[in-house]
Specification:
alpha+beta; four-stranded antiparallel β-sheet; about 50% helix; DUF2939
């Protein structure tokens, strides 16, 4: 799996995406409730890198991916990636984009993966993190 997935690049990208999304959410909260937004933004800046970094480092590994209960369930049903692919096309001669979504869930987030040609091999080098609203319950 490490030959086709650049896990260090995906971890770095995921950390930056999640930190950015958390900062954006705390700023949005700050517009509604200034004190809470300021506290959230400060905590995100202080604690975000270590908490997010450690979590992403633990979750974005070949072992974690293969042992993920959802992945195990799909593997047991003999479902492959192609069952979820909704779009695939070249972004450039050396970059390929693949979108995947659970066809059984209308509100499921779309996962976008970027594959990059490295030498003679294509590798997954980035995965777009879904919106935070797709991952956590909405808080009013």
């Amino acid at each position: 799996m490490k030959k086709i997935v650049d896990f260090p690049a995906i971890r770095a990208s995921a950390k930056a995406q999640v930190e950015g999304k958390l900062l954006q959410k705390s700023q949005e909260l700050g517009e509604k409730r200034p004190v809470l937004g300021d506290i959230g933004e400060a905590l995100t800046k202080i604690l975000g890198p270590s908490v997010i970094g450690g979590t992403v480092d633990d979750l974005v590994t070949p072992e974690a991916l293969l042992s993920n209960p959802t992945v195990v369930e799909h593997r047991e049903k003999d479902e492959g990636f192609w069952d979820y692919m909704t779009y695939a096309f070249f972004s450039s001669p050396t970059t390929f984009r693949v979108d995947a979504k659970n066809p059984n869930e209308a509100d499921a987030p779309t996962i976008t993966a970027t594959m990059t040609l490295e030498g003679v091999r294509w590798r997954v080098t980035d995965v777009a993190v879904p919106p935070l609203t797709a991952m956590v319950p909405k808080v009013n």
